[in-house]
Amino acid sequence: MPDITVHEAFERLQVAQVVDVREDHEVAQGRIPGCVHIPLGRLGERLGELDRHRPVVAVCRSGNRSGVATQLLTAAGYSCDNMAGGMLAWQSAGLPTV
């Protein structure tokens, strides 16, 4: 399961699908612009919402749940990287949120 930094994830925003696997209440506190929100517990049933031909960056609060999501997505045939440090690292780096 490849991990990428928040800066690498930021550089990929124009190309990759960012999938935020946090819960609704967490996403309400800020998310990456343009991300797709699919809580981890529903990811398996909602895979059809993602483009198999575009790379995916999985995101959660700290990087743990998105690591699980990365394994699930990779097993389902997606090219997926885990954003190390999650939204805590993203916000700490001063990167944009909505």
In the CATH scheme, what's the topology name? Oxidized Rhodanese, domain 1
Distinct helical segment count: 4
Helix/strand/pairing category: alpha/beta
Largest sheet: 5 strands, parallel
Domain unit count: 1
Name the helicity range: 25-40%
Oligomer: single chain
Query: How do the strands of the widest beta sheet line up side by side?
Result: 1-5-4-2-3
| Name of the CATH homologous superfamily | Rhodanese-like domain
Radius of gyration using CA atoms only: 12 Å
Strand content: 15-25%
Report low-confidence residues grouped into runs of 5 or more: none
Count of DSSP strands: 5
Helices and strands, in order, run as EHEHEEHEH
Beginning-to-end CA distance, first to last residue = 27 Å
CATH architecture: 3-Layer(aba) Sandwich
Broad CATH class: Alpha Beta
- Mean residue pLDDT: 96
Shape category:
globular
Q: How does this model look, in words?
A:
With 98 residues, the chain is an alpha/beta fold. It contains 4 helices and 5 strands. β2 (17-20), α2 (24-27) and β3 (36-37) form a beta-alpha-beta unit. The protein is globular, with a radius of gyration of 12 Å. The model has no long low-confidence stretch (mean pLDDT 96).
Task: Summarize the helices and strands and which ones pair or pack.
Blueprint: E1 3-4, H1 6-11, E2 17-20, H2 24-27, E3 36-37, E4 56-59, H3 64-75, E5 80-83, H4 86-92
Parallel strand pairs: 1-5, 2-3, 2-4, 4-5
